[in-house]
């Protein structure tokens, strides 16, 4: 603004000096001519400065666009890594699932939760990979976001419900634990759904040049709040499991109990790190708002599935074992 006003004033002065050049005494003509040359030189410097500022701003914008494109490219690769990890885990444990899940009791009602937790990530991962392979407009990106995000959130809730059932079992189905989980559903599940609905309604996407994907430019605060509620749910489940695990392991050193509770704590540590990253990373780098959301979904499914397979293995390996080993109810844990 200041530079523009200066250039206008100097141009006016130059025109004024030029108009006076034909009138007056020789001394006055020489003086006006000197001022005109000085003003013209200064004007050229101002224009040069303007061009430098313009080039600097253009370079900054170009670098910002490159950073945005690279962050979107990085995020797309993270979804590819998630899909690869999911397929690898499915192929690795498929024989175990056949032997311990589908052949012994294929009509057990809990197997519906197992199947949803295990195979539903394939659907949203397939949709995501297919979407990344095509050029999308901002409207297409928003439409895809509305379809896939609730699907992924439902899958995470299914994993958490399975862990709640497991925790409720190891606490001998106490009514206090039951009402604790009802409270979690009211004060954590519902606010998470509300935050996700608000995020889907207010999300905005922009297209990037020379890149098939779009960039989510909406503030990350609603998603951060949703991830905080998810982390609260996982933390409550982990604390209840830890308290009961300490009580059980003090009375028994059964290998199944050791592996069972160690797996549960390892599950929580992995989910805690991913959830914390999903909360903090978008605050520092908003371009990476969706970088770890796929990992949150996949790790919930994979780790929860491994805990369930551990329980089902114990049920098949020792069907005639005394359900109480060291006064610890293994039958409830393995149900």
From TrEMBL:
Domain of life: Eukaryota
Stretches assigned to the DUF6533 domain: 79-123
Xref: InterPro entries: DUF6533 (IPR045340)
A matching Pfam family: DUF6533
Keyword terms, alphabetized: Membrane, Transmembrane, Transmembrane helix
Residue intervals passing through the bilayer: 72-94, 144-165, 177-200, 220-243, 264-285
Keyword presence, Transmembrane helix: yes
Segment forming the signal sequence: none
Protein name, per record: DUF6533 domain-containing protein
């Amino acid at each position: 603004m200041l530079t523009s006003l200066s250039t206008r004033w100097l141009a006016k002065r130059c025109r004024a000096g030029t108009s006076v050049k034909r009138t007056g005494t020789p001394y006055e003509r020489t003086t006006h001519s000197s001022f005109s040359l000085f003003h013209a030189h200064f004007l050229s410097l101002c224009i040069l400065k303007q061009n430098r500022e313009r080039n600097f701003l253009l370079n900054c914008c170009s670098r910002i666009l490159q950073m945005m494109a690279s962050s979107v490219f990085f995020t797309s690769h993270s979804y590819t890594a998630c899909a690869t990890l999911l397929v690898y885990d499915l192929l690795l444990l498929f024989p175990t699932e056949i032997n311990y899940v589908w052949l012994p009791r294929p009509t057990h009602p809990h197997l519906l939760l197992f199947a949803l937790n295990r195979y539903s990530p394939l659907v949203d991962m397939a949709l995501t990979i297919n979407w990344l392979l095509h050029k999308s407009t901002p409207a297409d990106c928003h439409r895809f976001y509305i379809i896939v995000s609730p699907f992924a959130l439902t899958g995470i809730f299914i994993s958490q419900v399975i862990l709640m059932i497991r925790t409720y079992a190891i606490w001998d189905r106490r009514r206090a634990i039951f009402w604790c989980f009802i409270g979690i559903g009211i004060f954590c599940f519902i606010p998470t759904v509300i935050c996700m609905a608000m995020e889907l309604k207010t999300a905005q996407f922009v297209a990037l040049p020379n890149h098939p994907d779009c960039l989510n430019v909406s503030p990350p605060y609603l998603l951060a709040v949703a991830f905080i509620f998810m982390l609260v749910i996982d933390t409550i489940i982990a604390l209840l499991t830890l308290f009961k695990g300490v009580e059980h392991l003090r009375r028994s050193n059964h290998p199944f109990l050791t592996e069972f509770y160690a797996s549960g704590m390892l599950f929580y540590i992995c989910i805690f790190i991913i959830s914390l990253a999903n909360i903090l990373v978008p605050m520092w780098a908003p371009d990476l708002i969706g970088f770890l959301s796929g990992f949150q979904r996949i790790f919930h499914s994979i780790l929860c599935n491994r805990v369930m397979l551990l329980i089902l293995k114990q049920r098949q390996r020792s069907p005639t074992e005394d359900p109480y080993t060291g006064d610890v109810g293994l039958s409830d844990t393995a149900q």
